[in-house]
Amino acid sequence: QAAACPAPPAAGPGSGMAKAVQQAAAFKDSVVNGVFSFFHAGRSAYVLLCGVLLVALAVVMILATFDSREARAAPPGWEQFVAATGSNQWVSASFLLSAGFIVLSINFLPRLEGEA
């Protein structure tokens, strides 16, 4: 005779699927509460977006630096890194990166003093 297979667990309140749904709902609520507290704390979303865009442009510029004429002419390895970081594109990328982080810090740091 074939052994009887156990019945699958019921999808009740103690099941794994219900716990996963509860955890997903709790995660969604925490994200929504975080977004609302972000705006209620006086932080500006457009300043945050500006800082993120500046950092993203800096990353694109750094990638373009390693594809520049000077970097491609150098042998791979340390020489290519030195050639890329000595170019004008690298200087522009470093200014964009520092400007992006300065904008992000302007958006957050003054409020941190008052929240402590």
What is the number of helices? Answer: 5
Beta-strand portion reads under 5%
pLDDT under 50 segments (min length 5)? Answer: none
Instruction: Kindly name the structural category.
Output: mainly alpha
Residue-averaged pLDDT: 81
Largest sheet: none
What level of helicity do the residues show? over 70%
User: How far apart lie the N and C ends?
Assistant: 71 Å
Task: Please provide the count of β strands.
Answer: 0
Order of helices and strands: HHHHH
Shape: flat
Computed CA radius of gyration, to the nearest angstrom: 26 Å
Commentary on this structure:
The structure is a single chain. The protein has 116 residues and is mainly alpha-helical. It has helices spanning 16-40, 45-65, 69-73, 78-85, 88-115. The model has no long low-confidence stretch (mean pLDDT 81).
